[in-house]
Amino acid sequence: MLCGIDEAGRGPLAGPLVVAGVVLKEEIVGLNDSKVLSEKKRENLFSKIKEKSYYHIVFTSAKSIDELGLSACLKNSIIEIMDILKNNCDEFLMDGNTTFAIENLNCKIKADATVPQVSAASILAKVSRDRYMCNISEKYSNYNFSKHKGYGTKAHVDAIKKFGRSDEHRFSFKLKALDECNDKDSTKSLFKD
């Protein structure tokens, strides 16, 4: 059996990185890359996936991302998933183009759109992260996290300019809009995953 692994929250300016692993126990109709599904469809599939699979979801805080780096956090999350689900499958497949040098892990570009287990992991990761950002939105009302989920929208960047960063923000992600990047830096944070 195959365990599909995918992440949500690689690129935002705020909030956690969320990585999910899924081993399907039965077929689920309608799975696809979470980014092409409506919020309602993702929510409906979320509960079905949890009912019909072995799964594990790992949250890594913005603080840990700042301290360890994004790649190390991704790698640690994948290793945890593989350890938890190893008795339920015999193969692990990560969406993307790297295995982070993890033994027994395969990768495939666009697996989230073509491999049901990875699509399911994509949905669990995205819905879990979106719910988290909505849950903290009231506490951090200056930033409107429920609307942009921590991504680098103009409104979010404007809020950071006005209020600074909160403890949910990634301080290691530098913004050209705030003159934080020098010529050697790249803006790591303004892409959606």
Automatic annotation (TrEMBL):
One GO CC term, this protein: cytoplasm
Q: Supply the EC number(s).
A: 3.1.26.4
The record lists the organism as: Arcobacter venerupis
Entry's HAMAP family? RNase_HII_B (MF_00052_B)
Where do the TM regions start and end?
Answer: none
How is the cofactor bound, as the UniProt entry phrases it?
Manganese or magnesium. Binds 1 divalent metal ion per monomer in the absence of substrate. May bind a second metal ion after substrate binding.
Family label: Belongs to the RNase HII family.
Which SUPFAM superfamilies has this protein been placed in? Ribonuclease H-like
**What this chain does, per the record?**
Endonuclease that specifically degrades the RNA of RNA-DNA hybrids.
Please give the PANTHER family that the UniProt record associates with this protein. Answer: RIBONUCLEASE H2 SUBUNIT A, RIBONUCLEASE HII
Q: Which Pfam families match?
A: RNase_HII
Q: What class of enzyme is it?
A: hydrolase
Enumerate the InterPro entries for this protein. RNase_HII (IPR022898), RNase_HII/HIII (IPR001352), RNase_HII/HIII_dom (IPR024567), RNaseH-like_sf (IPR012337), RNaseH_sf (IPR036397)
Give all residue intervals belonging to the RNase H type-2 domain: 1-186
The Gene Ontology biological process annotation of the record reads: DNA replication, removal of RNA primer; mismatch repair
What name appears for this protein in its UniProt entry? Ribonuclease HII
Entry annotated with the keyword Nuclease: yes
Q: Which residues bind a divalent metal cation?
A: D6, E7, D95
Q: Does the keyword Disulfide bond apply?
A: no
Where, per UniProt, does this protein localize? Cytoplasm
PROSITE patterns attached here?
A: RNASE_H_2
Q: Which reaction does it catalyse?
A: Endonucleolytic cleavage to 5'-phosphomonoester
